[in-house]
Amino acid sequence: MDKFIIRGGNRLSGSVPISGAKNATLELMPAAILAPGVYNISNTPDIRDVWTMSRLIGSMGAYAELNNNCLHLNTSNITSLEAPYEYVKRMRASIHVLGPLLARYGYAKVSLPGGCAWGPRPVDFHLKGMERLGAEITLEGGYIIARADRLKGAAVSFDIASVGATFNVMSAATLARGRTVITNAATEPEVTAAGRFLQKMGAQIEGLGTSTITIDGVDDLKPVDEETIPDRIETGTLLAAIAISGGSATLTNANPYHLAVVLERLEEVGCEIDIRCDEISLKAPEHLNPVNVTTAVYPGFPTDMQAQWIALMSCATGASTVTDIIYKDRFTHVPELARLGCDIVVKDNSATIRGGRSLTGATVMSTDLRASVAMVLAGLVAEGETEVLRIYHLDRGYESLEKKLSALGADIRRVKTEEL
Ligand code: UD1
User: Fold this and answer.
1) Whole-prediction pTM
2) Distance 297 CA to ligand 1 centre (A)
3) Phi/psi of residue 32, each to 5°?
4) Residue closest by Cα to atom 21 of ligand 1
5) Whose CA is nearest to atom 27 of ligand 1?
6) Centroid of ligand 1 to alpha carbon of 116 (angstroms)
């Protein structure tokens, strides 16, 4: 197991590129099941979740190889229609194979994901969506078994705009007979990117990026090449890193329009933001203003930036609150941030942060991806040495984070560890 050792205090400067979006890649790869053949997907992030998805579809008979951020995929020889527990327990997005398998092969067996580190994360919308399209769903031995001769278009409405369920229904509907209309669909850029990929493959889809997506089923799709969009959460995280360090630096290959609300909140914090095409420059103020945020579905403040914002607000001059309405129990980072000296009180789904205390290095550990990166942010300003253990969580979604932070001047290194 690897850990990071960080010596805080360096102001970040310089420029680093943003990688391709994890959550978009985790939709493009399963979508390729819909049309057997060869795909090349450039700007694919070299991260653990992509490796896990490669192994998962590899276990089904597909071939996936990642070279210099270009993913070469061949889905011509799918022989197994199963997503085993072994993969799903590591990565919930494994459930994204459900819709494509069912639509293309009329059958899918996918392990139920179960809970996650920060509480229950049900998949009922995915299952109801498949049933609306005419699938017969049973639960056997911890697995979802879905069967259908050919799916039929239907009206599908979600109670909450779900990213994964929108992807599953949209992808399954591309090969269904007739029209599917998804209302309260997710508008996240990653879902839109998957929809554009499907359109390129020949799918008839309208309304991407809006809450109503209409899909007219076709008989066949064809393999195509694609470029993954930039990762907006990596972008937000690195901007928060520059801000917390009191630095001034530029991120390239980004899409500023995908994180408008985060940029606005950073300006309220006092940061100067300069946007030039796909580059975002941030200059931190001498003192960070406290700014409250509440998470929301896109284009609101992303829940995937909540932990990083709490770390940032711990260094603001004054008190702020951070409320998560998407994942109400997603606060596992709080007790660990407290070990670094952060003053945070959580009540229900809100954290009150009293900023301005000086942080001191400590050993911290995390149980999820964004929680770990929040500790890295705090470590960048903590006095002395911070050890962040179990960074395999962080490696799920950040490509070479320590190299990018080092390139910006941070004192951070990766060390192999023999944890008990
Ligand atoms: C995706 C992202 C994740 C992000 C989340 C919210 C991927 C791989 N992951 O996760 O990084 O944090 O969106 O932006 O893209 N819900 C149900 N029933 C369901 C499905 C969802 O009640 O069947 C609820 C969830 O508990 C949550 C809300 O809907 O409160 C949104 O979740 P959803 O958008 O589905 O998240 P994921 O697709 O799992």
Assistant:
1) 0.97
2) 9
3) -65, -15
4) 162
5) 326
6) 12
Instruction: Select from 43, 130, 41 the least CA-distant residue to 57.
Output: 41
The whole-number mean pLDDT for each consecutive block of 10 residues of the chain, a chain of 420 residues, reads: 95 98 98 98 98 97 97 97 95 96 98 70 92 96 94 97 97 98 98 98 98 98 98 98 98 98 98 97 97 98 98 97 95 96 97 95 92 97 96 95 98 84
CB crowding 96-121: b at 16 or more within 10 Å, else e = bbbbbbbbbeeebbbbbbeeeebeee
Q: Tell which residue, 234, 245, 370, 399, has the closest CA to residue 306.
A: 370
Residues in the chain: 420
Distances in Å between the Cα of 391 and the Cα atoms of 171, 213, 395, 414 are 33, 38, 6, 9
Nearest one of 49, 30, 29 to 90, comparing CA atoms: 49
Q: Is 116 a catalytic residue?
A: yes
Tell me the HSE value of 58 on the side-chain side, using a 13 A CA sphere: 12
Strands 385-389 and 2-7: antiparallel
Query: Could you identify the atom of ligand 1 that is nearest to the CA of residue 328?
Result: 30
Substitution candidate for ligand 1 out of 27, 144, 326 with most atoms within 8 A of CB: 326
Protein residues with CB under 6 Å of any ligand 1 atom: 23, 26, 92-93, 121-126, 160, 162-165, 186, 190, 303-304, 326-327
Per the CB < 8 A criterion, the answer to whether 96 and 30 are in contact is yes
Give the CA diameter of the chain. Answer: 63
Ligand 1: atom nearest CA of 327 is 30
Question: CB-side exposure of 374: number of CA atoms within 13 Å?
Answer: 32
